Structures are given as C-alpha cells and as structure tokens.
Amino acid sequence: MLWLKQQPSNLATFTNANGEKGSILNFSVADGTEAMLVTLSDEAKNANYQRRKDPTNKKFHCVRKSTCTVQTIKNYGRTSCTSARIFKAVTIIMPPSPTKTLKDAMSSPVRENLTVQGQIIRDEAIKTVKVAQKDTKIRALTLEENGQTMELTLWRELSEQDLKIGQYIEVTHCLVSEWLRKKSLNSTRNTTIKAVQPKDMVVTGNVEALSMTDTHCEMCVKEDDIYKDFIVDLDMVRAQVQRYVEEAGTFNLQQLENMIVDKLLFPVKLVINGTTVISFELL
C-alpha cells in the first residue's frame, strides 16, 4: 500500500478523560484497489480506538468505512496505482478548493471549501475564545476585492501570521459560514496564506461625482449599485475628453472641470490594479 499524502496541519492533539495528552495524525493511502483516509493514533491514550487482534495480519485495520487506524507500519515494495486512484487519495486529505471572487464567495453555500484573494482593509487584534473548553486564538480580518468586502477569521497558529493592512493575500481552503444572515469565511487546518500581486479589474459604471486637482481627478463611479472612489491621472481624463471635444486640450483646469460636471452620470470604463487606475475610457 502506498503512503500518498500527509499534511503537517493534519496532526491533531487531544486530552483524554484522564487528562493525558495524545495526538492523532491523518494521512491518505492508495493501492490498486482503493484509496482511503488513515488515522495514526496513540491508542494507549485514546479510548476511542480500541486495540483488536487482526487474524489476517494485515497492515491496516479498518474501524469504519473508508477510514482505518494503523496497527503496525512496515515497509513494502512499490505498488501500482492509477492516476485516478492517486487523485482520489489526494482529495481525501486535501479537498479541492476552487478560486472564487469575494462576490461569488458571498453567494456560495455554507460549508463550501474555497480559495479567495483580496486586500486586507481591517485587522482586529488576536483574541482568545473557548473551543471544547480549550483556549483558542482567533483573529478577524476584512478582505476587499473590487468593492466587495468579506470577513475572514483565522484560527489557531494562522492568527499569528505576519499580516498587515494594505496587503494583498491569497487564502486557500476557507469554509463559508453564516451568522445572522451574514456570510463570512473561516480558515481550516489546510489553509495557507501568501502575499500576491493584485489582479487587474475592470470597472464599468456611471460617474456620479468628481473633483479635480492640478495632477489628478477624483471620481465616484456607481457600478451595480455599489459606489467606488478612484483617483485618475488628469492627463488620462483630458485625453479622453479630447476624443469628443478637440479644443479640450487647451482648456484650463476650471474649464475642463465645468465641462465634465455638466455631463455628470456619463458612463466610463476603468482598468484598475489594486488602488491604481491603469486606464480610463469614456463610453
């Protein structure tokens, strides 16, 4: 039988009724016939796993369907395994975590396992809560992606990861939860967090308000009933206005602003990367 997949996060500790500490390690295995989850436990301290005689002297002793506990560990020769069987074993210990936008995550069903990206816009202090009568550290972050925000709770060791407001991160293997009709995300034992470069995002909507300085134009764009604020380079704005009014290239700042304000609620398209507007187009 092939030892196929093990994650450090799949090592769990427990305390039995006698106050003795023990640990359980989960990993997946596969051979030519099946793939399953295996639990390696300290049976002397875990009353949930009872030692039994195994008359067939097999390597693994099953205690429930598709799961087994290890009685002995021996080295065997190589075993043949189909790619489909290997894939099944991998997904047992590391479930799929499809990447979704925060907007899609908000409409995902409870308990769905997914990966998200976003900018940290709020970071609460680490606090301790009781879980199964044990002190457990948690930390609440708020992520933002293209105007959509969602709260993410980091559990245990992940709560102490070096993260800062303004960072763009990718968080894998989150579980969708809901409380008082509000969706949020929770980390799991399989969650990993890494810094990423923000993706280019396209925003299309109507300009509802704006103001200008010598170097840039601040504008509020309404997209899908969500108001978003952007800072656009003034040269980008002037170049687009000149497409329709050629003499706009000679307008002073006040003349340019007055002309644009008169056309408010006009449609625009912006390409943004993080907080930077890469391109601006009048539609």
Q: How would you describe this structure in keywords?
A:
283 residues, mainly beta, OB fold (Dihydrolipoamide Acetyltransferase, E2P), 3 domains, five-stranded mixed barrel, 12% helix, Replication protein A OB domain-containing protein, NA-bd_OB-fold
Walk me through what this model shows:
It is elongated and about 85 Å long. The chain has three domains: 92 residues, no CATH class; 94 residues, Nucleic acid-binding proteins (OB fold (Dihydrolipoamide Acetyltransferase, E2P), Beta Barrel), CATH 2.40.50.140; 83 residues, Beta Barrel (OB fold (Dihydrolipoamide Acetyltransferase, E2P)). With 283 residues, the protein is mainly β. It contains four helices and 17 strands. A hairpin with a 2-residue loop joins strand 16 and strand 17.
Write a brief caption for the model.
It contains 4 helices and 17 strands.
The total strand number stands at 17
For this structure, what is the CATH class of the largest domain? Answer: Mainly Beta
SS-based structural class?
mainly beta
How many angstroms separate the termini? 63 Å
Q: Give the overall shape, derived from the CA principal axes.
A: elongated
* Radius of gyration over all CA atoms, rounded: 27 Å
Fraction of residues in helices? 10-25%
Number of helices: 4
CATH superfamily of the largest domain: Nucleic acid-binding proteins
Question: CATH fold name of the largest domain, please?
Answer: OB fold (Dihydrolipoamide Acetyltransferase, E2P)
The arrangement of helices and strands along the chain is EEEEEHHEEEEEEEEEEHHEE
What is the typical, i.e. mean, pLDDT? 80
Which runs of at least 5 residues are low in confidence (pLDDT < 50)?
A: 1-6, 45-71
Largest sheet: 5 strands, mixed
Using the 3D structure, state the CATH architecture of the largest domain: Beta Barrel
**SS strand fraction:** over 45%
Compute the number of structural domains.
3
Strands ordered across the widest β-sheet:
1-2-3-5-4
Protein name: Replication protein A OB domain-containing protein
InterPro entries: NA-bd_OB-fold (IPR012340)
